[in-house]
Design a protein that fits this description.
Length: 253
C-alpha cells in the first residue's frame, strides 16, 4: 500500500464516520475507495464493516446526552439489531452478492419516503391513537421487527442502514429526532460490531486498510456527533434525504 492510498483510505474513513453519525451511508464512501484500490468486493465490504466500528462507538459517546433515559429502549432494540446483524453477516458469506444488492436501491427509496413523510404521518397517527407513554416509552413489536430487518440489511451490506433505522424509529416512537438519531447511532454500531466479529472469524479482513478506516472513522464519529447535535430536525432530515438520494444514484450507477 502506497502512502497516497493510505491517506485516501484514512480520509474516506473519517468522512464515513462523520456521515454515519449524522445520517448514514458512510459505507458508500469507504467501500468504493477500497474497490478502486483493487480489493475484491466481499473483502472490501468485510474490511469496511470492521473498520467502521470505532466510528460508531465514538458517535454514540458523543450523543450520550441524548441517550439519557433511553436505557430500556436501547436494551430491547439492541437484541433485534444484534440478531439481525448476525443473520445479515451469514447471508453475505453464503449468498451471491447480487441477490441482495439488486433490491438495495428500493429499500433506500422506501426509507427516504418515510423520512420525508414522517412529520405528516406522525400528526395523522397522533390524531387517531389513544394517549400512551411519553418519549421514554419502549418500542412496540412492529418497530422492533423493523429494527431487526434493518440489522439484517446492515450486516449484509451496511450502506444506508442508518437511514432505514431512523425511518423505523421516527415512525414507531414518540420522541425528538435528535434522541432518535442518537439511538440510531447505537443500533447501527451494534450491527457493525456483531457482523464485524463474524467476519473476523469467518472471512478475510484486509487489516491495513481496516486499521486506517478505523482511525479515520473514530475522528469522524466525534465530529459527526458535534455536527449532528447542532442541526435542527428539519436540517437533519434534509441531510438524511440528500445522503439517501446519493446512495441510490451511486448504487444504480
Amino acid at each position: 500500500m502506497s502512502p497516497w492510498h493510505a491517506i485516501v483510505i484514512f480520509a474516506a474513513g473519517m468522512f464515513a464516520g462523520t456521515i454515519n453519525t449524522v445520517a448514514g451511508s458512510g459505507t458508500l464512501v469507504t467501500f468504493p475507495v477500497l474497490l478502486a484500490f483493487g480489493y475484491a468486493p466481499v473483502v472490501a465490504n468485510v474490511t469496511n464493516t470492521v473498520g467502521l466500528v470505532p466510528g460508531s462507538a465514538a458517535g454514540a459517546l458523543g450523543y450520550r446526552r441524548e441517550l439519557a433515559g433511553q436505557r430500556s429502549r436501547v436494551l430491547a432494540l439492541a437484541a433485534a439489531s444484534l440478531t439481525g446483524g448476525i443473520i445479515g453477516a451469514v447471508l453475505l458469506l453464503t449468498l451471491p452478492a447480487s441477490a441482495f444488492q439488486t433490491i438495495v436501491p428500493v429499500f433506500i427509496a422506501i426509507a427516504l419516503v418515510q423520512i420525508v413523510a414522517q412529520p405528516r404521518l406522525s400528526r395523522m397517527l397522533a390524531a387517531r391513537r389513544t394517549p400512551r407513554r411519553g418519549p421514554n416509552g419502549r418500542a412496540g413489536p412492529v418497530t422492533t421487527l423493523g429494527v431487526g430487518i434493518a440489522g439484517i440489511y446492515g450486516g449484509y451490506f451496511g450502506a444506508a442502514q442508518g437511514i432505514l433505522n431512523l425511518a423505523v424509529l421516527t415512525l414507531g416512537l414518540d420522541d425528538e429526532l435528535q434522541r432518535l438519531n442518537a439511538l440510531k447511532v447505537v443500533l447501527t454500531g451494534l450491527v457493525n460490531l456483531v457482523s464485524g466479529v463474524v467476519f473476523v472469524f469467518a472471512a478475510h479482513v484486509a487489516w491495513a486498510p481496516a486499521g486506517l478506516i478505523a482511525g479515520g472513522s473514530l475522528l469522524g464519529g466525534i465530529m459527526g456527533a458535534r455536527i449532528g447535535r447542532r442541526l435542527p430536525p428539519a436540517a437533519l432530515r434534509g441531510v438524511v434525504v440528500i445522503v439517501g438520494v446519493f446512495a441510490i444514484v451511486h448504487l444504480l450507477a
